[in-house]
Every structure is written in C-alpha cells, then in structure tokens.
C-alpha cells in the first residue's frame, strides 16, 4: 500500500468538494455542524489525498494507516471525505441523518467503511489512537495513526491521560491534529476554559509540536507527510483554522457551530464555493 | 488492603484468571494485558515477567485504559483489560459504551475484586453496580464465574469469543464447586447443579456455593430445591429461567445490588413470560463498614439466609 500521489491542486479541489458536499448534507438534513465541517475540510483533504495509505476496497487491511475522527460531530466533512476517497458512494450522502441511514450524525465503524472507532462523545479518539499505535509497536507494523481532535474537545481529561501515555511510550507513529478554530459550541475556547499555551502543554507531555496554518495545503502535506523513522516522540500538529472557513457569513461565528442553513444561506455558500 | 486470607480449601479466583491467561498467551501472541497500575492486584506479575512487551500499563487512568484496549483490538491484538471492577466500570463507563460495546470490538474487560471484596474500604471501592450497568450494553457478553474452574473456563471462553466480553473475577476466597465429570462452560448456557421442583435458587459468583449449601439444608426438611448457576448474564439463558419459574418460587442470589443485576434479569424474564414468586437477594444500596464475611452475614447472604428466603417464598406460593 503506497501513499497517494500528492498534488496541491488535487488537495485544493478535494477540499472544495468536501466543503460543498458537507454543506449540502447539512442543508438537506437541516442538522449538522457546518462550522466545524468547514474548519476541518482542508485537513481531511490533505490526509486522504496526500498522506494516508489506504485501499477503499479493503478498508480493514492490517497494514493500512489509521485515521480517527475524534471530533465525531463533524460527519458532514468526514463522510464527504470518505465518499471522495471511495469508501462510500457519493450518492449516499443524500441520506445523511435520514431515517435508517447508516450515515448517522456520529460515525459508526460497524456500518461505514473507513471509520476506525465510534466517536461522538468528545475525548474518545485519542486514547483509541494511542492503543492502535501501541499495537503497532508490539507487532512491529509500520502503519501510521492520525487523529483529528477539536480544540474545545481538549478540555476533556481523557485526552491528557492518552497524551501522557503516548509521550511515555514514545509513540512516534502517532500524529494528532488539533483543529484549532478557537471556538466551541457556546463561546471561544479561551474565554470558556483557556487552552493556551497549547503548544507548551503538548511538549510538557512528551510530544513534538508543529504549529501550522490549517488551511495551507502545502504546509499540511509537508508536516503530515514527513516520515516518522527519525522521531522518538509522537507529533502534535496545531492546525490554526477558521471555523466556517470558505463561507463568508460563517467564518469566525460561534453560532454556526451547529447552525441550520436556510435556502438563502445555502445558495450563498454554494456560490462562494463554486470554484 | 484488607485482603481476606485464603482458608484451606478455598481459592482466590484471581489466580485462576492469571494462570489461565498466561497459558493462553504462550500459544497466542496476540494476547496482551492492559492494566491501570494493577499488575499486582490482578495477579499478573507472572504474566508480566513472561511477556513484558505484552503488558501495557497505562498508569492510573481508566478512561485511557479502556480506549487503549479498543485501539489494541483495532491493531489486531486480543487485549485483556484488567482492573478493579469499581474503577473499570464506573470511571470508564462511557469508553465501555462507545469504544467497546457500540464499536463492537474484540476487547476483554476483566473486572477484578468485584462486589464487596474490598469490604471495609467502603462503597467507593465496592462494585455492586457493575453487572446492572453493563447489562444494558448491546454486544457485550457478561460472565460471573463461581470458582477457580469456572473462572479459568470463562477466561478461555473470553479469548475464543470474537467480540467484547466482561468477566467479573472474585477476590473473596471460594471453595471449588463439585461438578460432574465432563462438566463444560458455555457462554449463554445456565448450569443446573442440583435438581429440585419445590423451588429454585438462581445464583452466580461467590454466592453459588452458599446456594448449594442452602439447598442441602432445605433437603433435610424435605424441600427439594433446584440450584441454577447463571454465570452467563449475557447472553442470558432465558429458557433456564422459565424452567426454574415452573417450580413456582424463585430466589436469586448475587454479590451485587438487588436492582438491575442477576435478580433484575431474572425478574424481566419471569414477569414477561412465566410469572412466579420471586425473591432477590443482594445488597439494597451502599453498604455499611465491615469485613466481607460480616457484610454477607448482615445482608443474609449466607446458606442460612438463602434457606430462609426460600422457605419464605415457597410459603408465599403455597
């Protein structure tokens, strides 16, 4: 299994398609988390079209790279990425959160190929990702493990239990990407329960830290794609993002955490994401 | 720690757990243990010595403990996540729900020193709620073995079972239950250890030998009581419960809360398909201070107490 041929143009185009699909899903469902879907889209595009080794025809191949979507509420972007990557048919995205659809508001590995673990309650992805990485340490497998967390999600203590243990285990094949959009459901992260200095926190737990523009495809590709062989620590990539990125009226607006799109919102957003 | 000394002829089932797991692990390199600084309290010192790389100690962090277990399963290992049941189930309940049960992954949860094994340490360290909580979770098998043999069989069954399972291991010393030659343990199958048609006792774990003693007492008075070992709580042998209910009087006995556990499971089956008189023995709530022996006595969880409950419920039915 090889890494996909990386091209910045391809990643940019996939990110645009993921955003359009996610907003269409959120609009059709009159539900969803569009703000977070938009902030994470570039990260997902970089991962699925530049970094991860996977085979959608064999989604549980033992040597696949693992991707864990810890911010499980952003299934708009996640399912859209899985569809673009070939795990599920794009036509099925229309069923998002509809009656009996397998595309639940939070992902279920037993029904959706490409989902590694069922997330939704926050602070669950990182411990599982640490376990997957430790399994690789024991068996000698060389797969890599990537997990995307929200930033508000880091207020959950389970993340720090896992961070401490990953540092202790020198889990170099593990990379956490923090979607640092600085907003959580009710307000800013810093006014709710301050996370900064976030880089120092991860370093103190035994991690390497890279702080990047989470919408810069070339930088994401470079940082996430770097081989792990020379490392002796897990890597935390603090991806500075804008919640609602790409849709002018959503950007930086806390109300779009799970705001519901009306027809006018949708038309405006799709026009802005037309090319 | 007030670990009870093990009297002659009685066994700490943790040893059977650890010895069996060591033997299984020697043949299957996928078997790993995951502990929360609980190597000693899980009796896994020998395992750790033999398989240091396969002993994953996450420290005192139960949410991570269970999440890491789920991740190890994802990576192809067979993790035995072993911790005091009070912390494993209460602290990490959401991880057990989302990462293990809902995700339906091949994780073996070993609830050590369950029930009131920690005696005088009090309700924070008791785990009398675990079975009731876990019984609500789909996909998760639950076993409460009664003695060293059954503990060993449950561990073998857990390793062979493709899916999540919880095995509740007792610390309080118990005698070996006499069983017929060729006895076998089967997940989802109750074991009738004594026939009888006047009443039935359904018990498991450390209460089983007391139930058998109660039945012997009652036989001297001409009351013939069936004794059913319901070690497997999930899947549940509903037919065995309906059959027990046909005696007209049922007593359940468990080292756990009287609400939602074995008694609750039996009540659900009986009330919906075969009503009969039922008495549920266990703990009514947080228990007061005392040794394990004292607390069993205090709450009537002795052969005498069980026999009295059977007389009571049998009289109610006649």
Outline the structure in words.
- The complex is a heterodimer of chains A (275) and B (318).
- Chain A is an alpha/beta fold and 275 residues long.
- Helices cover 39% and strands 11% of the residues of chain A.
- Chain A has one domain (8-250, 261-272): Thiamin diphosphate (ThDP)-binding fold, Pyr/PP domains (Rossmann fold, 3-Layer(aba) Sandwich).
- Chain A is built from 9 helices and 5 strands, in the order ααβααβαβααβαβα.
- Chain A has a 5-stranded parallel β-sheet with strand order 1-2-3-5-4, with helices on both faces.
- The radius of gyration of chain A is 17 Å and the shape is globular.
- In chain A, 51% of the residues are buried.
- The model of chain A has no long low-confidence stretch (mean pLDDT 97).
- Chain B has 318 residues and is of the alpha/beta class.
- Chain B has helices at 13-27, 45-50, 62-74, 85-91, 93-102, 130-135, 148-160, 208-220, 238-245, 262-273, 292-298, 303-317, and strands at residues 10-11, 31-35, 55-57, 78-84, 108-112, 141-143, 165-169, 174-175, 191-194, 199-203, 225-229, 232-234, 249-257, 277-283.
- A 7-stranded mixed β-sheet of chain B has the order 3-2-4-5-7-6-12, with helices on both faces. Chain B has a 5-stranded mixed β-sheet with strand order 9-11-10-13-14, sandwiched between helices. In chain B, strands 1-8 form a two-stranded antiparallel sheet.
- In chain B, strand 10 (199-203), helix 8 and strand 11 form a beta-alpha-beta unit.
- The longest helix of chain B is centred in the first third of the chain and has 15 residues, at 13-27.
- The radius of gyration of chain B is 19 Å and the shape is globular.
- The N and C termini of chain B lie far apart (47 Å).
- The A-B interface holds A 62, 66, 108-110, 116-121, 123-124, 126-136, 138-139, 141, 157-158, 161-162, 164-165 and B 32, 53-54, 56, 58-59, 61, 63-64, 66-77, 79, 94-95, 98-99, 102-105.
